[in-house]
Amino acid sequence: MLKDITLGQYFPGDTIAHRLDPRTKLILVVLYIVGLFCAKNVLTYAMMMAALFLCVKVSKVGARALLRGLKPVLLIIAFTAVLNLFFTSGDTLVQWWIFRITKQGLQMAVFMVLRITMLIMGTFLLTYTTSPITLTDGLESLMNPLKKLRVPVHELSMMMSIALRFIPTLIEETDKIMSAQKARGADFESGNLLQRAKAMIPLLVPLFISAFRRADELAVAMECRCYHGGEGRTKLHVLHYKAADYLVIMGGLVLTTAVIMLGRMGY
């Protein structure tokens, strides 16, 4: 299960998706999320699915990696589908005891499953095709106007990047600790939910200790390199928009606008 958590991982490549400016990809993700939440019918969801499929093909990451990342949240997706299926009023299709499935509930359940699935796959695709350092530069550049309001833009971007970077590291550390404790006779799989939760307590203590140790080592390493924030710092690779970035952003704007308009028109 832990190996299925792929958030924060970066898959190096030389595709158009990898070469795009990180600011372009961040803007596209925002437009993609807006389009998903504005999609209200089969046509608009089909348009968003086609856009996601095109991005996956261009990035050459592979649908298998994206689907593997969905495994940890399958329970949440199923729970959301059940809530929408049985607790949405409308025209009754099937009724048994206190449970009632309506036409609107079935439609809402399908749309919510698609929305959550596509949302996770789209955001995962961002981290798969963008390195943490590049993502930090893009975030900082986009939030640069907030510096006038004394918002610590550089520090916020750095914290978000470090959090994403250390997710795979902590997952790997957790897997090592679980393997070591299983070799000593620990059992994390048998018993009911409460017993499994109690069995995880001995796992959390060394994990927190390891996380704090890594954070302390990172702080010492940054101090040794005279890190003192973003003021006065220069960049080895300066971000520049290219023609492909403008074209992709324009395509994202057109798609999102079309989805919003079609949703309001009832198509």
TrEMBL record:
Mode of membrane association: Multi-pass membrane protein
Location (main, coarse): membrane
Transmembrane segments: 26-53, 73-98, 110-131, 243-263
Domain of life where this protein originates: Bacteria
Keyword Repeat among record annotations: no
Recorded family membership: Belongs to the energy-coupling factor EcfT family.
Record text on subunit structure and interactions: Forms a stable energy-coupling factor (ECF) transporter complex composed of 2 membrane-embedded substrate-binding proteins (S component), 2 ATP-binding proteins (A component) and 2 transmembrane proteins (T component).
Purpose of the protein: Transmembrane (T) component of an energy-coupling factor (ECF) ABC-transporter complex. Unlike classic ABC transporters this ECF transporter provides the energy necessary to transport a number of different substrates.
Protein name: Energy-coupling factor transporter transmembrane protein EcfT
Organism: Oscillibacter hominis
